[in-house]
Amino acid sequence: QVQLQESGPGLVKPSQTLSLTCIVSGGSISSGSYYWSWIRQSAGQGLEWIGRFKTSGSTKYNPSLKSRVTISVDTSKNQLSLTLSSVTAADTAVYYCVRERPGSNWFDPWGQGTLVTVSS
Amino acid sequence: DIQLTQSPSSLSASVGDRVTINCRASQGISNYLNWYQQRPGEAPKLLIYSASTLQTGVPSRFSGRGSGTDFTLTISSLQPEDFATYYCQQGFSSTLTTFGQGTRLDI
How far is CA B84 from CA A57, B38, B42, B63, B87, in A? Predict the structure, then answer.
């Protein structure tokens, strides 16, 4: 079955750019049947959807993060990426990559998550 | 944005109990409502989608109901592994999907 594994630096300085990758195994990220999303979870904000990549090449972002977020896919590596610029302490969270079902927009499976702390 | 309000925020119960968790949407969302379980230290896991459809592999003691603005997740007979936090999520607005604040289920 499909599995997702996030990776990236656990500590990012304020005002810098957070960059994470997610390796998809057990299935092709190019499959047109699904979208690929990032979700984060912090103590203060709960679960927050960051954005999604569609295999058509289009993206959709949470309006509250849109100006700072980029989600992309490298089909040759079967990999999803997230960049979030100008980070602050409010961006400290566990970041998950997830597969999203179009239409009903449910999320399954989830990666194990990676904790990113923003601190100097 | 569509807001989801879960109640209660926390709940204490015993093995074998029947429990119900509520999720109310700030506007009608048809049946575009999904439920997740999150155990400590783990990622959320999809339990139910489209309000009432059990995800493959999820025990039949879990069930979901509702449409429009009011939804419920029921666990018919609590098992030790069910003590976790439960979240609802609306997929009606694909431009901004949102989650409830969670319901913590304790022993």
Answer: 37, 6, 10, 16, 10
Residue stretches of chain B with pLDDT short of 70: none
Q: Which amino acid, residue A73?
A: V
Question: Is the Cβ of B68 closer than 8 Å to some Cβ of chain A?
Answer: no
* Predicted confidence (pLDDT) per residue in B33-58, tens digit: 999 999 999 999 999 999 999 999 99
Model pLDDT, residue B94: 82
pLDDT at A65 over 90: yes
Residues 6+ positions from B7 with CB-CB distance below 8 Å: B21, B22, B24, B103
Would you mind telling me the total number of residues written for chain B in this entry?
A: 107
Q: Select from A49, A109, A112 the Cβ nearest to the Cβ of B97.
A: A49
Listed in sequence order, the residues at least 6 apart from A57 whose beta carbon sits closer than 8 Å to its beta carbon are none
Query: For residue B52, how many other CB atoms are within 10 A of its CB?
Result: 16
